[in-house]
Design brief:
two-stranded antiparallel sheet, 61% helix, 2 strands, 2% strand, 11 helices, 162 residues
Length: 162
């Protein structure tokens, strides 16, 4: 089973939270990190298969929402010196959205909770976590931030009580 990553692992790979946004686009800073780290061969192998993968992955959801091509975005990221350069590319090539559209989409992603088949998968992947907390209540953002050490169980428990 895949163990939760420890804080040393996340500090080594320098991935931003999926909650981070750039120009109102949630996930974009993380996508930038993943593409750059993969090109530098510093991204852990567990992440490779989902980098800019179409479909129901977070990367795929971003591609669909923004209406951009995975390879085009990859090239834009690798040829850009800064995050702001990538944002300019996104603003030029993505389908038009408003700040409110971006905010609503971010809220929709954060509010999503898995169906039973995904809950069962999570229980198999994170048995220790599932024995401590109701894993069905975790957003995908919570799970990633827990896995990568940006969020502790104590923080999660405190926020669910508030």
């Amino acid at each position: 089973m895949k163990p939760m990553m420890n804080m040393n692992d996340i500090q080594k790979i320098r991935l931003r939270s999926p909650r981070a946004s750039l120009g109102g686009y949630v996930l974009l800073p993380r996508l930038i990190d993943k593409v750059r780290l993969l090109a530098e061969r510093q991204l852990p192998q567990d992440y490779w298969s989902n980098v800019l993968k179409a479909g129901n992955t977070l990367d795929g959801r971003f591609l669909t929402y923004a209406g951009v091509d995975a390879e085009g975005l990859r090239q834009a990221i690798l040829s850009s010196q800064t995050d702001e350069d990538v944002l300019v590319w996104i603003q030029t090539h993505a389908k038009p959205t408003t700040a409110e559209d971006n905010r609503a989409w971010a809220e929709q992603l954060a509010a999503y909770r898995p169906d039973e088949s995904v809950v069962e998968y999570r229980k198999r992947m994170y048995p220790e976590l599932a024995s401590i907390i109701d894993i069905a209540l975790l957003s995908v953002f919570d799970l990633i931030d827990l896995d990568e050490g940006r969020l502790s169980l104590n923080q999660l428990r405190k926020s669910s009580v508030d």
